[in-house]
Design brief:
Largest sheet of chain A: 3 strands, antiparallel
Largest interface: A-B, 58 and 45 residues
CATH superfamily of chain B: NADH:ubiquinone oxidoreductase Nqo5 subunit
Strand content of chain A: 5-15%
Strand content of chain B: 25-35%
Number of helices of chain B: 3
CATH superfamily of chain A: Cytochrome-c3 Hydrogenase, chain B
Order of helices and strands of chain B: HEEHEEEEHE
Number of strands of chain A: 8
Number of helices of chain A: 20
Radius of gyration of chain B: 19 Å
Number of strands of chain B: 7
Order of helices and strands of chain A: HHHEEEHHHHHEEHHHHHHHHEEEHHHH
Distance between the termini of chain A: 34 Å
Oligomer: heterodimer
Structural class of chain B: alpha/beta
CATH topology of chain A: Cytochrome-c3 Hydrogenase, chain B
């Protein structure tokens, strides 16, 4: 910024946009490939036209190996893809959608081969949001770990924290008090509603029901306000921690819940009035982006997509956690496996989650909000002023952390997007030896070719929105 | 869990059937979850048999670098799920550090595709028979496999494209 161009005299010529300096002639300089000089594969030098769209090893080739082609056509499971076998017109083109396309919900990139408006095959390309959080987790103590994982699936942070905390507690053999369990359930189920609200809102927006995005945000705001009141933050809370939760519910939390229960259900009724029987919405969603139950299983697709395909699978039922088996709720199931059924499943899940919230809030147990195990729980703040030992204990806990016995554990919770699993390996230290996160979006995005093959380009937007991918969860 | 399985439960029946077919695989329990350890060559037959036995949902595949372990530096961890039997099975395969190769599971579970690419990308474990074993999370031109334990945090300076003439 030291020498701004002198626009008054006009003596310096502004560089023409999109026209970098002429390329050096001569053979390909391999060393430049290593320096992030972007190239278009197949071109000889960065001076060639289109030099800013390097495909590299991710290029979708005109002629692929049969297995690769089957994957891109989504025909690895099942064999009823008659449309895919239809001869193409011979005039196809390979295009990119993303990573900066607004309807890809983050930095998801799709390469697609098109025959006119029809998608012959598709290939999701990910990694644009990779920040090495699994490596970071190995450098953080278990006390700090929840702060890291909460940033992965940034639309359902409570689930990340819950999954991490449950995994650590299983290795520790630690029981958390009933009130902590109930608070965890309360916050995660509210989080499910907030996440689905966003999903339904953007689903509507992406296919032209623009008022949905305003309605969805309106109700979500009530939930985020409650999160802020309880945790201090609207996202990335670090509220659920190994041993319990960070703080007890604030005074007046019952009023906050009552406000949510009064505000959100009428909003959901509004969405249903707007979309359920809306002929335009149904035209864009019914029979679009179909995936069958068998394909879901083979690809590890879980959550609302699996349930919309007719499988009544919910980890809260199958492998209950945090005492959720004590409350009544239904698992909504679709039948078509299409975009419309996913929308309907999410709407019903919001109602069920609010029903759960109502039960949990009504029967909130008294008692402590975190474990009384002093190995993982810091001493109360008031003790620090009176006791040197408490001060040392507090200091050691937050600098060195606590040690976790050697072992390995896989813990999964039902996040709004499906099975969120964490595989945690401890070798006895205060930091995890390995933390692998099985993000539901990762598996769901992988199955996109199955849903996209043989559909229209315009349906891509509807399908991607219905998968509800969070790229922070995909790329980690 | 090494003893007889509880054949009165659907989960126990599935496990007992697998244990009978694969006597060389050792079944143990870890934190209440069944875990089976197989040799590299036994992975694909075991996974195929598990899929036939009802463990037909592919959940997860990841690698762990144990650095100094006698039975093999890397461990590849596969999670399968049987919805009807409400059973999770974890398959562990030790992979030596000087020959990090493993047969690919993509022929059994198409969902293993991205997960094997991730394990290759971050750990350098190669999956023979994978249709498209390229990097998935890191840029194509990245050197090394950063989740290996001998790859320290911060060892790679992040390159930004130089802007010519920038002051």
């Amino acid at each position: 910024m030291s020498n701004p161009p002198d626009i008054v005299t006009g003596e310096t010529e502004a560089p023409a946009l999109g026209m970098p300096p002429a390329a050096p002639a001569g053979p390909v300089d391999e060393s430049r490939r290593r320096t992030h000089e972007v190239w278009l594969s197949g071109t000889e030098s960065p001076g060639d036209v289109g030099r800013f769209t390097s495909e590299g090893a991710q290029e979708m080739l005109a002629d692929e190996a049969p297995r690769v082609l089957a994957g891109q056509r989504g025909s690895l499971v099942g064999d009823d893809y008659t449309a895919a076998a239809a001869p193409a017109s011979g005039d196809t083109q390979i295009i990119n959608m993303g990573p900066q396309h607004p309807a890809t919900h983050g930095v998801l990139r799709l390469q697609m081969e098109l025959d006119g408006e029809a998608i012959l095959r598709a290939k999701p390309i990910i990694g644009y949001l990779h920040t090495g959080m699994e490596k970071t987790a190995e450098a953080l103590t278990y006390v700090q770990g929840a702060t890291n994982v909460t940033r992965m699936d940034y639309l359902s942070p409570f689930f990340n924290e819950l999954c991490f905390s449950l995994a650590v507690e299983r290795l520790l053999g630690l029981e958390v008090p009933p009130r902590a369990q109930a608070i965890r359930l309360l916050m995660t189920e509210l989080n499910r509603v907030a996440s689905h609200l966003l999903s339904v809102a953007t689903q509507g927006m992406d296919i032209g029901a623009l008022s949905m995005v305003i309605y969805g945000w309106r109700e979500r705001e009530a939930l985020l306000g409650f999160f802020e009141k309880v945790t201090g933050l609207r996202m990335n809370h670090d509220y659920i921690r190994p041993g319990g939760v960070a703080a007890d519910l604030p005074d007046g939390w019952e009023d906050g819940i009552a406000g949510i229960l009064a505000k959100v259900p009428p909003g959901i009724a509004d969405y249903q009035d707007l979309l359920d029987d809306n002929p335009i919405f149904k035209e864009r969603t019914v029979g679009v982006g179909v995936i069958t139950a068998a394909e879901c299983r083979a690809f590890g697709v879980t959550g609302p997509i699996l349930r919309a395909a007719g499988v009544p699978w919910d980890l809260r039922r199958a492998f209950p956690y945090s005492g959720i088996e004590r409350y009544a709720f239904d698992v909504p199931v679709g039948s078509g496996g299409d975009v419309y059924d996913r929308y309907r499943v999410r709407i019903e899940e919001m109602k069920q989650s609010l029903h759960l919230v109502e039960q949990v809030a009504a029967a909130m147990p008294a008692g402590d909000y975190r474990s009384d195990d002093l190995k993982v729980t810091p001493p109360p703040r008031a003790r620090l002023d009176q006791s040197m030992e408490a001060l040392i204990h507090h200091f050691k806990l937050f600098t060195e952390g606590f040690k976790v016995p050697p072992g390995e554990v896989y813990q999964a919770v039902e996040s709004p997007r499906g099975e969120l699993g964490m595989y945690l390996v401890s070798r006895g230290g205060a930091k995890p030896w390995r933390l692998h996160v099985r993000g539901p979006s990762f598996a769901n995005v992988q199955a996109l070719p199955v849903m996209l093959a043989d559909s229209l380009v315009a349906d891509t937007v509807a399908t991607v929105a219905s998968v509800d991918p969070v790229l922070g969860d995909v790329d980690r | 869990m090494s003893g007889p399985f509880d054949a009165t439960t659907p989960a126990g029946t599935v496990l007992a059937g697998l244990a009978a077919r694969f006597p060389e695989a050792s079944f143990v329990e870890s934190q209440g979850d069944p875990v089976v350890r197989v040799a590299r060559a036994g992975l694909v037959p075991l996974a195929a048999a598990a899929r036939e036995a009802g463990l037909d949902t592919f959940i997860d595949l990841c690698a762990v670098d144990y650095l100094d372990r006698p039975e093999g530096r890397f461990e590849v961890v596969v999670h399968l799920l049987a919805m009807e039997a409400r059973l999770r099975l974890r398959i562990l395969v030790a992979v030596p550090g000087d020959d990090p190769r493993l047969p690919s599971l993509t022929g059994v579970f198409p969902g293993a595709n991205f997960y094997e690419r991730e394990a290759y990308d971050l750990f350098g474990v190669r999956f023979d028979g994978h249709p498209d074993l390229t990097r998935i999370l890191l840029p194509d031109e990245w050197e090394g496999h950063p989740l290996r334990k001998d790859h320290p945090v911060g060892s790679v300076p992040v390159q930004f494209k130089a802007v010519e003439g920038a002051a």
